[in-house]
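Schema walk-through. Below, the input block comes first and the output block second. Nothing else is stored per chain. Lengths vary across the set, and this one has 571 residues.
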Amino acid sequence: MCKLNVGLFWGVLLAAVSFNAASAQNGLFSGTDRISAGGSIGLTASAYAVDGIENRRPPGMIQSTANLNFSLFGLSSGLNMFYSTDDSGFRQNMNAFRYNASWKWVTVQVGDINSRFSQYGLNGATVRGGYVKLNPGKFLFEAVGGRSQRAVKPSVETGFREPSFEQWAYGTKIGYGSGSGSYFHLSTFYAIDSRDLDDTNGVLEINPQENLTVTPDFQVQFFDGRFTLASQVTTSIFTRDINSEYIPYNEIPLPSFFENIFKPRSSSRINFAGLADATLTLDMFNMTLGYERVQPGFESLGRGRSRDDFEKVSVNPVVRLLGNRLNINSSFSYGRDNLLGNRLQTQNNINAGTSIQMQVTDRFTLSTTYNLLLIDVNPASGSEDIIGGSQTQSSHNVLLQPGYSILSGSYSHNITLNAGYLSIDSQFGGNQQGVSDFSSYSLTGGLNYSVSLPNGLTLTSSGNYLTNSSDGLEIDNFGVNLGSSYSLFSRSLTLSANAGINFNNTQRELPAGDSVTAKLQQITGSLNAQYRLTARDSFSLRLRTRTNRSTSGAGREFSELEGSFQYQRSF
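--- output ---
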């Protein structure tokens, strides 16, 4: 497979270069908008070494990309590929290949496809197979099918993530309307695991699954688009183990023809998830009201792991004043879980925030943000002795960031200051079995300065400070970073370097009353070189190092070094 992908990459590279050269020599594409071609190819080689800790990434890796796009009398076509030597049979495939073609209202794709049919149905799952979209006028039809997951056997080898069955998935979507206006869509998604997975270790902690989702989705606009209503609800039939006992249709309230689509079993469950929102759009004011609900136990193989058992109501007003020089964006949401009331605890969340951005003058900008989070956890009646009492938590987060720019002749100066405050207060009630109240606050500050000179030299500097105080723990952190970049040969070559040092001091109180102090020092550095060989060819070289050293007390010491070389050609 590796040889096949490498050969495919170089084949595409050779074809693209030959195609580009031939078209340039013959003048085939000049002076006409009916025929055009373009694309790019890239190759990146990287190396990594570490001492003191486990490897964070492979010691050596090669990544290649290629894309080719052309248009021929209204027919648009493209080829995209990504290949990495880091791909492993111990996890899902990370290499990607896709060919697409479109003509008028027809679109076809073959390869690795990422489609989104709905929020809770097909949303983000990669399908290696085929895709077709028909969109004549206001009519819409989409279909996708292929393998969504490859089989991964249990292993003790390095790089193994988790076992999985081979999975196949299919989806369709039909609708009428305009995607930016009013429309109605109906989509379905079906995925099933293959039972054939050899557990070489004799223990397999997963079961083959099956899932079918159906989602109606609509949007209606009024008053020339100033007011919009939208909603979608997904019903999911999920089988946790397709080896479980089959349930005949005469024993459940479903139509008999459904048996040809989905076979219910003792581990099958039906759940739903949905959202609705209303949006008002005016010249200087926007507001969105939203509601989202996901039933307990809702699962969808089309979007991976996601949170269930919650509902949320949200309000998001936006105000624009002074010719858009002043923007105020606020949000408020209330959410809760334990929708069926069958859990031992219920959590209620309130999240409120406001962000203000203002262009005070042409040189001075000011932005500030405030966020409030309130969490209230209450035990069910009679469960206090099992899980303890109630819990409340409040969090306040304030951020202030002014910026100032100075243009003095050919010199450009930029100064940015940021300051933040964060407080967290947790209180416990009832029997918490030794758990006490907790409070914490943090102060952060940072200053950034950069100057650009007319000769192509840019100098940057920054400093940051953080202090945190919580029950039994004090943390102080301070860091400085310096950098520069310089352009040569009519800005064809750009060299840059950065160096930084960071100090961390942690003091922890022990139960006996003593304290332990740990001091760490981290030094970072990087070198970058970018060179534009021609108008279409460029390469870059990057080196980065990081050293972590303990100067007092206990601490992890390690050193990292990584480098990469990248070549890019466009045509």
